[in-house]
Write a structure and sequence with these properties.
Layout (H helix, E strand, L loop, with lengths): L9 H33 L19 E7 L2 E6 L3 E6 L5 E6 L5
Antiparallel strand pairs: 1-2, 2-3, 3-4
């Protein structure tokens, strides 16, 4: 076997250098774009507006909260979903959840 090193083609070295440089620049630009998108998405005051106070029926304890356009809902420990009007705060609908027990 011949252990002599093979000559290196300078054109191939130049190509590999440019390829590595291009890939590095692409990765840096991609990372900057991702960081910029995160900053744009999470910057600002787009947090959902929560009601000041909610009056639950007697004995009801809240376990979950969700909201939609013009309404918000509260899930209680006694297996009910209470749907309230966002503008007036009055109870629109009460849904009893049937459990398999």
């Amino acid at each position: 076997m011949d252990d002599t090193p093979q000559p290196v083609n300078p054109a191939m070295l130049k190509f590999l250098t440019r390829l590595v440089t291009t890939l590095t620049a692409t990765m840096i630009v991609g990372l900057l774009v991702i960081i910029t998108l995160f900053v744009i998405r999470f910057w600002g005051n787009d947090a959902p507006s929560l009601p000041e106070a909610v009056t639950l029926p007697d004995g009801a304890r809240a376990t979950a909260f969700t909201q939609g356009t013009g309404w918000y809902a509260i899930v209680t420990t006694d297996d009910r979903i209470l749907i309230y009007d966002r503008t007036t705060g009055h109870l629109r609908q009460s849904v009893t959840i049937e459990t398999g027990n």
